[in-house]
Each structure stands twice: as structure tokens, then as C-alpha cells.
Amino acid sequence: MTKGLPPYVTEFRDRHGKVRLRFRRTGYPAQYLHHPVGSDEFWKEYLALKEGARIEPGANRIAPGTFDDLIAQYYRSTVWNNVPKESTKRVYRGTLERFRAKYGSRPVATMTANNVDKLMGTMRETPGAAAMLLKRLRQLFDYSILIGMRKDNPAKPVKAPKAKGDGFHTWTEDEIAAFEARHPLGTKARLALCLLLYTAQRRSDVVIMGPQHVKNGRIRVRQMKTGKELYIPVHPELAEAIVACPSGHLAFLVSERGTPFPVASFGNWFRKRCNEAGLTDCSAHGLRKAAARRMAELGMSNQLIKSITGHVTDSEVARYTRDADQVALADQAMAILARSSMSNQETGLDKNDAKLLENKG
Question: What does the pLDDT read at residue 360?
């Protein structure tokens, strides 16, 4: 039998003698895992099952025409099946299930635009979550029109509350130095910082990175959110951190149990390491933004930055690089202007200046 299986996973032999893995957790659907233990595909599948939607008691007794009914039909629809990524479905499902927990028994036909607007008003302190919910409701009501539950979409005219600030705080160089001073080379916290900062990837990708992903001086990343594949050269400081803190596992970062971190658990664990360094405003995602900021300050083009971060559009990169140091960028801009002025002087004089010099001669 395989040792070190993660929680809720059991191994057994089926009636054909084949060894199989099964995920079983109270309140969750029992499912089989289909990939070898320790592989990228295994951990992605396991994390998806572990973070999946819980089965609510009485789910098989759904009143027709309610949001319970609508959402259940939506999960069986072509619209839902066309969502390309399982990780995306998991995020969408989490938003819908939180809404369903409050309004599942309510008839769909009774929800008005005013009701949706008031719901948005209750979420002013969490504008990101409000915007996500509004998007899901618009899709859900579109589907309700398709199956004849409604004739209109009450979520379309509603606006989500505006976000306060710029989202996740972008780490400054002083904050990075403070974290490094508190967590030296050889610690798991320092390795986590280097993986986040020197690959510029999301925490969902960092938690499954391991030695098997490194080849020819590059680390291979298949982004869980987008499915995009990247080959990122290993930065010298990242290489040093990996050597200084070997895990002995298929993932560079493992929990105290010796298993890869679930994404949410890693975020909480890293939050505590930040607090230990006195960095209460810093988070794992802020290091992805710091990496983009660094590249922008070095004058890299959006295309170069996208080759590391995996962003698709320039506007996405702009959201991450707007915290680039103004002083450094202004120095670059003025140096370019200065060189341009000198070049113009060397290439010739305008007619008035030439005549002036001739008269003086």
C-alpha cells in the first residue's frame, strides 16, 4: 500500500485486483482519483475535490422554480460544461453556493433589480466578492431566461460597489528585506518568498512546484487558473533557496504533515510568516505584483513581463506595474530625453541658429 496519502484519500483493490484511490469526506461526494500519487495531475485533482462544494442535507428535495432548482439545473447545463477549467468552475461554484445557502428556497421570479442592488449594498466592504457574485448572477439569470423561469435579467442594470484602493498591497524593497532578515536562507518561509517573487506566479501554482518541474535551468509552470504553460529560468537566489531548504518530496513546499499545502492553508501559513516579520499589509499575491513592479522599474517591455507572469493583455500587466517606483522611472525617462537632446544637437542646427553663428563668425 502507498504510504503518505493525503487526508481523505484511501487506497483499495477493486474486484479486478487493480489498485485504486478514493476521496471520501463527510458531506462531500465520494469520488475516485485517476492519476498517480504525487504527480501534478494528482495534486490538482485532489485539491479540486478537497475544496469542492459541500452537499447540503435535503439536496434531493428541491422546490421547483427556486434558486435551488435553478442552480441545480445550471450545473447540468451546456453553459456550465463550457466553462473551460475545473479550477474556474470551483471558484464559480463557491460563489454560487454561498448565494444559494441564503436564497436557495426563494422563488427565482420574485428577485427584482432593486433586490440585487440592495444585496450589492450589503457587500460594500468586500467589493471584489460583490463583483464576482454580480457576474455569476447575470449568467444565472441569463440561463433562467433560456429555460423559461424568467423573461428578464434583473442583475444586468445593477452596478457592483467600487473597490477601495488597489487590491493586494505590492511589496516594497524594504518589506522584502525585512522578511528576508526575519526568515534567513534555509527556512521554509524564505523558500516560499523566493518561489513567489522569482517566478511571479500565483500561490495556487507555487504550492505544487517541485524538483520534477526543473529542467535545463528552467522551471515548468502550467498555471492552474489559465492553463497556460510557461518555462521560467531559475533565478540564482531561488536556486540558492531551494538548495538551502530541501523538502525531500515532490513539492518544494510541504506542510508539517509532509504533504503539499492546500492553496488556502498556504495563504494562511504565509500570512503568519509575514506577521512574524511585522509585515501586516503583505500577502503572497503581493509578491507577484512586486515581481512585475521590479521588471517595470528595470524598463522591461510589457511583452517581456508577460513572458514571466503569464498575463495575456497589456491592461492586465498595467494593473500589476502601476506601483513601479516613480523616481526610478522618471530617471530613465529624463536620461532618454537628455540623450535625445544631445543627439539633436549633434545632427545639426536649425536655420536661425546657423545664421546667428555665421554673423558672429
Answer: 46
Q: In this predicted model, what pLDDT tens digit does every residue of 44-84 receive, in sequence order? A: 777 777 766 454 444 456 788 999 999 989 998 999 988 87
Judge whether 286 and 170 are in contact, CB under 8 Å: yes
Return the H-helix or E-strand segment holding 220.
Answer: strand 218-222
Domain positions in the chain: 1-52, 67-164, 173-324, 328-360
The answer to whether 296 touches 289, Cβ cutoff 8 Å, is no
Q: Helices 127-146 and 86-103 sit at what angle, rounded to 10 degrees?
A: 90
Q: Which CATH superfamily is domain 67-164 in?
A: Tyrosine recombinase, N-terminal domain (1.10.150.130)
Cβ-Cβ contacts under 8 Å for 18 (sequence gap 6 or more): none
Torsion of CA 214, 215, 218, 223, to 10 degrees: -60
Closest of 192, 213, 194, 191 to residue 267, by C-alpha: 192
**Amino acid occupying residue 125:** E
Q: Evaluate whether 67-164 and 173-324 have a shared fold.
A: no
Residues 306, 311, 316, 321, Cα dihedral to 10°: -40
Q: Which residue has the cell 444559494?
A: 100
Residues contacting 234, CB < 8 A, separation 6+:
198, 214, 217, 218, 219, 242
Query: What is the pairing mode between strands 229-233 and 31-33?
Result: unpaired
Residue 87 · residue 161 · CB < 8 Å: no
Distance, in Å, from the CA atom of 173 to the CA atom of 113, rounded to the nearest integer, reads 46
Burial of 254 (0-12, 13-18, 19+ CB in 10 A): middle
Written as nine digits, the cell of 180 is 528576508
Residues of the chain with pLDDT under 50: 53, 55-59, 347-349, 353-357, 360-361
Query: Per CATH, the architecture of 173-324 is what?
Result: Orthogonal Bundle (1.10)
User: What's the whole-model pTM score?
Assistant: 0.59
Structure-derived torsion over alpha carbons of residues 272, 276, 282, 285, reported in degrees to the nearest 10: -40
pLDDT score of 308: 93
pLDDT of residue 357: 41
Count CB neighbours of 343 within 10 A.
Answer: 9
